[in-house]
Specification:
29% helix; alpha+beta; 416 residues; 10-stranded mixed beta sheet; disordered C terminus; binds guanosine-5'-diphosphate; 9 helices
């Protein structure tokens, strides 16, 4: 059985957020599909695995059915947390936003920013969730990338930064130009799944537009990041080695939001999106620490902090309880600090009760994997908890902590 001591820098806990119909489900499925294909092929060095996966995919669709699904992209572990997109589930959306470190906001290239995208965006603002945008449905009649970028600026009051320039649109959507690397990715319908584009030089007729779009990207980045601003003022062209970390810093700080595009439906643009997730969204190690308090301490200053480290005492937040047809009741947790071993006792600090953890599972789209332990920064499902509900903290009984609550702030009414 696998023990998990994940490298915290190589984990991404992400949500995919969107207006209904923008393509959240399709994008999520495509991500699981590509990551599944490359992971399987990478493991077995056998084209048959891809074929099996394709058949399986055609038969039932690779759908997210769990509150968190683990997948891999290159040597990164990506946990996709299901963020309900419906208005009536607002508190559930907020709860899921609390446990992820970054999000992909999906837009419809024709509709742009819709009222419900605004609402989810504001919730993400409230939790300061770093974001990248994916302008989906570039194949659709009426699709306009730039218009969508402008709407993100105007309607969402954000600073979008296009890191791609689409080559064509609608039925003529041929590929994208990566403005960071100044290369073109051209969709290749003939290619095997899992490698659905060719990297080529920028077509001549796009050379001017690409240079202009890159200048805009660098100007936006300079406004968002001091290091690039210094180079910009000196008149020095920043290198890729300077641009990539600067985009990452700006994304995490929310001073600029990278925008990519594609058509999930037609398998276009999903892989560059995954590259952007890994390159720009934060790792659990980038978060300084999670706040909480000692439930027994009555004093005024009773605040406690747990750092994202395996060396710290164990603490985790329960964010979803689901019933699995095979396993029964599964409790989904985000581990913030320390290590949790299967079969050990933990404290539910809010209720002041001890509970025993049964088995620990990592949920993949097509299988579940039992693991012996789970460490800081990771998201898993555990069995055996009888008296714990969402929003509660599980922690090391010797080091009690109640993690900051996720309830809405109570307004203070002043009586004159
Ligand atoms: P969700 O409600 O955000 O989860 O959206 P879905 O993924 O269910 O997609 C909504 C509709 O848009 C479905 O009919 C999809 O087939 C369609 N769709 C998704 N992605 C694309 C795309 O890239 N291009 C086009 N033309 N349609 C798409």
């Amino acid at each position: 059985m696998a023990t998990t001591a994940l490298d915290l820098a190589k984990v991404r806990n992400i949500g995919i957020m969107a207006h209904i119909d923008a393509g959240k489900t399709t994008t999520t499925e495509r991500i699981l599909f590509y990551t599944g294909v490359t992971h399987k092929v990478g493991e077995v060095h056998d084209g048959a695995a891809t074929m099996d996966w394709m058949k399986e995919e055609q038969q039932r669709g690779i759908t997210i059915t769990s509150a968190a699904t683990t997948t891999h992209w290159n040597d990164y572990t990506i946990n996709i947390i299901d963020t309900p997109g419906h208005v009536d589930f607002t508190s559930e959306v907020e709860r899921s936003l609390r446990v992820l470190d970054g999000a992909v906001a999906v837009f419809d290239a024709k509709e742009g920013v819709e009222p419900q995208s605004e609402q989810v965006w504001r919730q993400a603002d409230r939790y300061e969730v770093p974001r990248i945008c994916f302008v989906n449905k570039m194949d659709k009649i009426g699709a306009e990338f730039q218009r969508c970028v402008d709407m993100i600026r105007e309607r969402l009051n954000a600073t979008p930064m296009a890191i791609q320039l689409p080559i064509g649109a609608e039925s003529d959507f041929k590929g994208v130009i990566d403005l960071v690397r100044m290369k073109a990715y051209v969709w290749n319908a003939e290619a095997k799944l899992g490698e659905a584009y060719d990297t080529v030089e920028i077509p001549d007729e796009y050379a001017d537009a690409a240079r202009e779009a890159r200048d805009t990207m660098i100007e936006t980045l300079a406004e968002a990041d001091d290091e690039i601003m210094e180079l910009y003022l000196e008149g020095t062209e920043p290198t890729i080695e300077q641009i990539v970390p600067a985009i990452r810093r700006a994304t995490i700080a929310g001073t600029a939001i990278p925008v990519t595009c594609g058509s999930a439906f037609k398998n276009k643009g999903v892989q560059p999106l995954l590259d952007a997730v890994v390159a720009y969204l934060p790792a659990p190690a980038d978060i300084s620490g999670v706040q909480g308090h000692d439930p027994k301490d009555e004093s005024e200053d009773r605040s406690l902090e747990r750092k994202p480290s395996q060396e710290e005492p164990f603490s985790a937040l329960v964010f979803k309880i689901m019933s699995d047809p095979h396993l029964g009741k599964l409790t989904y947790i985000r581990v913030y600090s320390g290590v949790l071993e299967a079969g050990t006792q933990v404290l539910n600090s809010l209720k002041g009760r001890k509970e025993r953890i049964g088995k620990i599972y990592r949920m993949h789209s097509n299988k579940r994997e039992e693991i012996q332990s789970v460490g800081a920064g990771d998201i898993v499902a555990v069995m055996g908890l009888k008296d714990t509900t969402t929003g509660e903290t599980l922690c090391d009984p010797g080091n009690p902590i109640v993690l900051e609550s996720m309830t809405f702030p109570v307004p203070v009414i002043e009586v004159a």
